[in-house]
């Protein structure tokens, strides 16, 4: 799918987020599979990788590519939907697209590779998008166990878990995670962490705690886009 096609696709927030996550990958059916294979080969064993391990890496990359294709797929316009197409599917509705993406992500997350860990996280995101908060929490907990210490992915994975916990009305645990993410050492953007904490406190009914968190956004990140939301919240 080229960039012109992407601009024509009406995407929901989850699909848009996923496409940004993978914007560095090639935009053809299979080159991103080959790129992922190269990464897995380097991680698993470098130049000494055995044929069996290479086969497993290729299989994991292919499963992940199929899941990514479903997440990024456009809706069918003037032709019949192709939900079973492995690399260029189209769907009749966003709901059907999400359901197929869930199935493909579930298959991809079983692979014992870094791509399997990433698929687990995306599967949790998809479950949350589908309104299955408790199931999303379970997936996100496992993803946080696997990726929580990763310097690049740890912060976003924990933030996703915090959102899932809030959706499941586990406000105290969600607030604790957001509060931890406000630490500069967490690797997660501080303004977004304070915003997440403020919203959870609002949902819990802790008006004073929410006010304190919004004020932190203004004090520490006055130029952040989140500052506008903070001013509105404090104005209330």
Key features of this structure:
single chain, 236 residues, 69% helix, disordered N terminus
Could you explain the architecture of this structure?
The protein has a domain of 128 residues. It is built from twelve helices and no strands. Helix content is 69%, strand content 0%. It is mostly helical.
Short description:
This protein is mainly alpha-helical and 236 residues long. It is built from 12 helices and no strands.
User: How many helices does DSSP assign?
Assistant: 12
Q: Strand-and-helix sequence, N→C?
A: HHHHHHHHHHHH
Residue runs with pLDDT of under 50 for 5 or more positions: 1-50
Envelope shape: globular
What proportion of the residues form beta strands (DSSP E)?
Answer: under 5%
Give the rounded overall mean pLDDT. 82
Distance N terminus to C terminus? 44 Å
Helical/strand content category: mainly alpha
Number of strands: 0
Largest sheet: none
Radius of gyration: 19 Å
| Approximate helicity band | 55-70%
Q: Which helices and strands, and how do they pair?
A:
Layout: H1 3-8, H2 13-21, H3 31-44, H4 51-72, H5 94-109, H6 114-129, H7 133-147, H8 154-167, H9 171-181, H10 190-204, H11 207-220, H12 226-235
């Amino acid at each position: 799918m080229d960039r012109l096609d992407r601009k024509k696709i009406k995407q929901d927030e989850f699909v848009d987020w996923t496409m940004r996550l993978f914007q560095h990958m090639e935009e053809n059916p299979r080159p991103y599979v080959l790129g992922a294979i190269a990464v897995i080969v380097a991680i698993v064993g470098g130049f000494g990788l055995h044929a069996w391990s290479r086969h497993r890496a290729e299989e994991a990359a292919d499963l992940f590519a199929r899941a990514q294709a479903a997440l990024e797929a456009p809706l069918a316009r003037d032709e019949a939907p192709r939900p079973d197409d492995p690399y260029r599917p189209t769907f009749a509705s966003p709901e059907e697209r999400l359901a197929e993406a869930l199935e493909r992500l579930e298959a991809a997350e079983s692979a014992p590779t870094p791509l399997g860990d990433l698929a687990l996280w995306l599967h949790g995101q998809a479950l949350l998008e589908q309104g299955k908060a408790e199931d999303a929490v379970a997936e996100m907990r496992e993803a946080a166990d696997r990726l929580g210490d990763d310097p690049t992915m740890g912060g976003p994975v924990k933030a996703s878990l915090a959102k899932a916990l809030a959706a499941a009305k586990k406000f105290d645990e969600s607030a604790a995670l957001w509060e931890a993410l406000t630490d500069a050492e967490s690797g997660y953007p501080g303004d977004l962490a304070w915003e997440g904490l403020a919203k959870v406190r609002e949902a819990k009914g802790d008006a004073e705690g929410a006010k304190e968190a919004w004020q932190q956004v203004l004090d520490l990140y006055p130029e952040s886009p989140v500052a506008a939301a903070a001013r509105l919240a404090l104005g209330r």
